[in-house]
Amino acid sequence: MMASTKTWTARRPTRMAGILICGLLIVAAWAALTLDPLSQDLMKALEPPSLAHPLGTDHLGRDVLARVVHAAPRSLGIALVCVTGAAGLGIALGLVAAYAGRLADICIMRLCDLLLALPGILLALLLAGFLGGGIIPMLIGIKVALWPQFTRMSRSVALGVLNEPHVEAARLAGFPAHTILLRHVLPPVLRQTVCLASLGTGAAVMSISALGFLGLGLKPPTPEWGSMTSELIPYLADAPVQMAAPCVAIFLTVLTVSVLGEFVLARRTRLPR
Amino acid sequence: MSVSEARLLWAVAAPRLWQALITGWLLATLCFALTHALPGDVALRVAAARIGDDRVTAEAAERIRQEEGLGLSVLTQYGTWMMRLAQGDLGRSLVTGTPVLAEITNHGRYTLVLGTVGWLLSYLIALPLGFWAGCWPGGVVDRLSMGFAVVLASLPTFLVGIGLISAFALTLHWLPPAGFKTGAHMVLPALTLALGLAAYSMRIVRNAVVEVRQAFYLTFARIRGHSSVGAFLHHGVRNAAIPIVTFAALQFAYLVDGFVIVETLFNYPGLGDLLVRSLLARDVPVVVGAALLIGWTYALINLAADLACLKLDPRRSMREAA
Predict the structure, then answer these.
(1) CA pair distance B184, B190, nearest whole angstrom
(2) 3-state SS assignment for residue A195
(3) Which chain B residues are Cβ-neighbours of A119 within 8 angstroms?
(4) Cross-chain CB nearest to A126 (options B210, B257, B291)
(5) Residue of chain B whose Cα is closest to the Cα of A127
(6) Residues B5 and B25 in one domain
(7) Whole-angstrom Cα distance, residue A24 to residue A209?
């Protein structure tokens, strides 16, 4: 355990790089949000990078930089909604499972096992496929795949905390269940699940782009990294920069999010118990 | 095999088999619910899938409504649907008219080969690298492989695939970019899968090796005079293998994620390609068949991993028997 907590993530350079990339992305995004991601100009299709179009144009003559940047808040926003929703539901059910007795525990944990027994992408694929793409099926699909992990972790943390003397004392002093759960159990659970949430955000960004790539995500012409990539595959040899741009955006986003998560993890494990 | 061993095996296998059954039921119900939750007339949609959007008439839809019993109550339809599935009748594809069973086994074969090759390849990468990194934690190999793993884990599968295509197919012309005719067509998709899997398994192997090397029983074996290699072979390998085998089964989930994308990208005629195409075409019976096959394989692989761990770890079989 000690060896794994003192990995490279606890050292400075990567952390600084993560923060730097994060800052750069935000500044660049701010500047480029003024560009129009939808206006087409077929005469200027697949142009290489120039001053007017720093990352070139795609097969319909749309500015790739504008599209990459406009996709960012959408992807991240959906990912964050998924993760907060999944975390809220997962933690709430985890606390109930830990506190409310055997029957609730068995029901909730069996449901978790069942959902974890399905490959996560399968649910998202089925929902998105049947309901015809768009935001809502994607939200539900990714959320359903994510919440059992939160439930498992928060339940096991809560079970540990509930056995501690200060919680026992609070119970004996006659505090109601919700006070004990909110004041004594929730804070340590939240501390443990922060890292899971950051990993989940990265996973959600990847799932969104994967669905987009398969043509089951956000509807075109909405700029989205995954669908931008799959649209440009036929022009791979002619438009390498345009192709690489959304890919690099996904990569940097997922990397940044996971580095931030590891940073939180490193901070947390340094704290005295 | 003695009676107690058989009972133990059953104790491990039974929950997984239940899980497989319930998974199948859940998937089938989900698909049924989703088809009926869609706005519009189911009969019209089936008719459109069978005879083409532009030739659908009210009579054709009516005929299909009669044939398929779509006019009955939802509960009756659900009952007949479940009865048919329970008897192994998956129906026919709405688009091609071939039986679904034939379709999914045909495509499933390709995916089985691709998945197995990719999975083996990933351990060909992960075992040596992870072992090396675990023997010298904090060393150059450890740090390099960690960086490699973090970068790979942040890359979406299709990006790895596109990178490999542009390097080995478009620039170097060593391998064909897509499709499936010869064995060479499988190298790039399998490698794409393997890299994505190895990003995680490398770290698991490394941590397992580090943990075993720090364990007291290994020090004790060294004190008793075993060589370090002999001690590791005798006491280390099995202990290190337990988390690795468990994780190898868990990786099937990533594998599903991976092969759906990889097959679409490389135009490889497997189950993922079939699933995506039939989802886009709203070919419900094929979607259900493919989803059931994937879900059940996942449950069976988990069962196999449980049994393998039982063989590797006699302590566990004693605990379970108690």
Answers:
(1) 10
(2) helix
(3) 252-253, 256-257, 294-295, 298
(4) B291
(5) B34
(6) yes
(7) 22
> Both B201 and B233 in a single domain?
yes
What gap in Å lies between CA A203 and CA A243, rounded to an integer?
21
Cβ atoms B310, B316 nearer than 8 A:
yes
B132 and B54 fall within a common domain: no
* Residues B270, B289 within the same domain: no
The predicted pLDDT at position A90 comes to 94
SS3 content of chain A, % helix, strand, coil (to 5): 75, 0, 25
Interface of B with A in 66-95 (CB under 8 A): none
Distance CA B159, CA B118 (A): 17
Alpha carbon distance B248, B196 (integer Å): 13
Contact A119 B252 (CB under 8 A): yes
Q: Helix, strand, or coil here: B92?
A: strand
> Of the candidates A39, A58, A5, A38, which has an alpha carbon nearest to the alpha carbon of residue A267?
A5
> Residues B146-156: pLDDT tens digits?
888 888 888 88
CA distance A14 to A20: 10
Please check whether residues B268 and B285 belong to one and the same domain.
Answer: no
B45 and B114 housed in the same domain: no
Nearest residue, CB atoms, B159 vs list A7, A251, A258: A251
Determine contact: A243 vs chain B, CB below 8 A.
Answer: yes
Helices (H), A100-185: 102-116, 120-130, 135-162, 165-172, 177-179
* DSSP β-bridge partners for residue B92: B99
Q: At which residue do the structure tokens 């990714």 appear?
A: A142
CATH code of the domain containing B189: 1.10.3720.10
Pull the structure tokens for residue B276.
């995506």
* Separation between Cα atoms, residue A173 and residue B31, nearest integer Å: 51
Chain A residue at shortest CA distance from B19: A114
Of B19, B38, B153, the CB nearest to A130: B38
Contact A236 B166 (CB under 8 A): yes
Q: What is the pLDDT of residues A188-227, one digit of tens each?
A: 888 888 878 888 888 889 888 888 888 887 777 788 888 8
Q: How far apart are CA B210 and CA B216, in angstroms?
A: 12
Please state the domain count of chain B.
2
Size of chain B in residues: 322
To the nearest whole angstrom, how far is the Cα of B256 from the nearest Cα of chain A? Answer: 7
Of B198, B188, B186, B190, which Cα lies nearest the Cα of B125? B198
Alpha-carbon distance B169 to B172, whole Å? Answer: 6
* Domain region containing B36: 1-95+281-322
ipTM value, please give it. 0.76
B 206-225: CB under 8 A from A: 207, 210, 214
Check if the beta carbon of residue A96 is closer than 8 Å to that of residue A213.
no
**Cβ–Cβ of B165/A258 closer than 8 Å?**
no
Per the structure block, which two tokens stand in for B7? 């009972």
Confidence of residue B41 (pLDDT cuts 50, 70, 90): low
Q: Are residues B165 and B123 in the same domain?
A: yes
